[in-house]
Write a structure and sequence with these properties.
Elements lengths: L5 E7 L2 E3 L3 E2 L3 E4 L4 H9 L1 H8 L1 E2 L9 E6 L9 H13 L2 H10 L17 E3 L5 E5 L4 E5 L5 E2 L7 E3 L6 H15 L6 H16 L11 H18 L10 H9 L7 H5 L2 E3 L11 E3 L1 H17 L19 H17 L15 H27 L2 H8 L16
Parallel strand pairs: 2-11, 5-10
Antiparallel strand pairs: 1-6, 3-4, 4-6, 7-8, 8-9, 12-13
């Protein structure tokens, strides 16, 4: 389809993109994208509108723009479809960023969902005017009087290819295309996008100013637990429990580290019956129980202290640090994301074979980063209990890679 049949729907002033991210029906692109430039030729006031976005110090920002194909089926036109699309991009970036941050506390990246927020003001259908539609207000004004600003709580950041969990993004976008290409979205996809919505809100900064407390952190932990529960929900015929989430996490289809793949942690069932034995579970399940118990304490008014959101008393990592990487394990299980196969036989030593090796290598590198983040987040005592050795000075598990 030509570049002349796309229109901007939202501006994301906290985000810029090096390359467009999207599908045949929707994308997040830069103002320099040919599809955006084609629209700007029809609406010159759009150029003026976009150029009026700055940060808090009036430094211009290269705001990303969510665009939609004009002839996309009506099912793609809803705010739910646009929000789900945004949530996909955020959750393909934030968990990976948090995993890298856990491993390298001084690293730079995209760690908060606020980076992907839609700006409430957008160009209207009438030339020279902008409209605002939010839960708090409905307004209209002139483009010439507009001064758009990125969020003062997060710096403007760039989504380069290196910060995107591409295997996860590809599968989520495929699900989005299938779901919103139908008149009625099936339960499995409703469950997925409800979960992503909750996870996106869990990824936001606790409060927009400096007064964040542990209770604000507890609220976010609660949203993350809800995201896990929604993703594991069996539907109208059943009920989700803590064990439902643990079972889903244990179905992780790919492991890079042999020690994690073979690790078995004895965990009792939520409501064990007489004679029930503890279940042997994986490390993600152990982390989720800490998340789950903290959520209960925060939301039910139980006593909490400054250590309540730590992985262990006197531990180094907050549960909020690992909630997003842990959610990636749940998504991998729910979506059955597996490593790309390497073709054999007559395709050996062909360009296609080389490309397949590169794809598989990149996939396993993403997976290894998430696994290493969980290992790194363990306290020294838990590390010794699970792996039967003291933590190395470099804090890295010298792992055997799964063949």
């Amino acid at each position: 389809m030509s570049d002349d049949h796309w229109s901007p729907r939202f501006v994301l002033p906290n985000l810029s993109v090096e390359k467009p991210i999207g599908t045949n029906h929707m994308a997040v692109a830069a103002a320099s994208d040919p599809r955006v430039r084609a629209f700007a030729k029809r609406r010159p006031d759009f150029v003026k509108f976009v150029k009026r976005f700055t940060d808090a110090f009036r430094v211009p920002v290269n705001a990303a723009i969510l665009i939609r194909r004009d002839d996309a089926p009506a099912t793609y036109h809803s705010i739910e479809a646009a929000a789900a699309f945004r949530n996909i991009i955020a959750l393909a970036i934030v968990p990976y960023g948090r995993a890298v941050l856990t491993l390298s506390p001084r690293s730079h990246g995209i760690f908060w969902g606020d980076t992907f927020a839609f700006h409430p003001w957008m160009l209207s259908s009438a030339a020279g005017t902008v409209v605002c539609q939010s839960s708090a207000m409905l307004g209209i004004h002139e483009v010439d009087a507009f001064h758009g600003q990125s969020s003062p709580t997060v710096p403007p950041l760039t989504a380069s290819p290196g910060v995107i969990d591409q295997p996860l993004l590809d599968e989520l976008l495929r699900r989005w295309e299938l779901a919103y290409g139908r008149e009625v979205v099936p339960h499995e996809e409703v469950r997925l996008f409800r979960s992503l919505n909750m996870a996106y809100n869990g990824s936001l900064i606790p409060v927009a100013s400096r007064e964040a407390t542990i209770f604000d952190v507890g609220r976010l932990l609660s949203l993350w637990v809800s995201a896990f529960e929604i993703l594991a929900h069996p539907g109208s015929e059943g009920k989700v429990t803590r064990d439902s989430v643990l079972d889903q996490l244990d179905r992780q289809p790919v492991w890079v580290c042999e020690q994690l793949r073979d690790l078995a942690i004895s965990i009792s069932r939520t409501r064990p019956k007489k004679g029930d034995m503890p279940v042997l579970r994986k490390l993600p399940a152990w982390f989720y129980i800490r998340l789950y118990e903290a959520r209960n304490d925060f939301l039910h008014g139980n006593p909490v202290t400054s250590a309540s959101h730590l992985i262990e008393p006197h531990g180094a990592k907050s549960l909020l640090d690992v909630a997003a990487p842990l959610y990636r394990f749940a998504l991998s299980s729910a979506l059955e994301i597996i490593a790309p196969p390497i073709p054999d036989g007559k395709e050996f030593n062909t360009p296609e074979h080389a490309e397949a090796i590169v794809r598989r290598s990149k996939f396993l590198n993403y997976q290894a980063t998430y696994e290493d983040a969980l290992i790194h987040a363990l306290s020294d005592s838990a590390y010794k209990e699970f792996f039967r050795i003291d933590r190395p000075i470099d804090k890295v598990l010298h792992a055997n890679r799964v063949k």
